[in-house]
Amino acid sequence: MISAESLVLFVLASVALGATPGPNVALIVGTSLKHGRRAGILTAMGVNVGLIAQLVLVAAGLTYVVEAFSRNFDLVRYAGAAYLLWLAILQWRSAGKGLDAPAPSAHAAFGRGLAVAFANPKTLLFHAAFLPQFVTDTAHPGPQIALLAAIFAAIALVGDVLWAVVADKARAALANRFTRIADRVSAGILLGGAAILLAAGRR
Known about the structure:
By secondary structure, the chain is mainly α. The chain has helices at 4-18, 23-35, 37-59, 63-71, 73-93, 106-118, 121-130, 141-174, 179-199. It has one domain (4-199). The chain contains nine helices and no strands.
């Protein structure tokens, strides 16, 4: 059984991590700024399905998958950075077309989130190292890691949806006359997410 102290520390650490912008948040915020709350939340859902898949792999102890990501760390993150850069270019080129510009389909928004979640290998490696730090029963770590993974996934989902909602509020506040600015800010955020992936190291 996880101690109350370890659980509280884990929740606080998870909340802090969820509030820290990264490639996933950049995509969610950029999508909400450009296409609104629905697209942003669908993107967040895709991100979190990817996150849950990574957490399941860690909780299941599939170390060979983690090792595979580690061996191909640079290749995966470069691909993810290129994808975010491509989205940023599309966003920039469509700047000023109005708040009613066609939004991506539900499948496209969800798929973008899923793709970017898996394009950040550091997330999988991080969880493989992060979750065990809060396990108190090292003889039977499986159930505790599964519980911690579920808690982290719930916190991450709430945090990402909040990012989407806040970005949508900012989009609405800008109104049509500031749409070009909002679109270019959105493109800049996506570009920042690509830069974060490019700058990511193994440490």
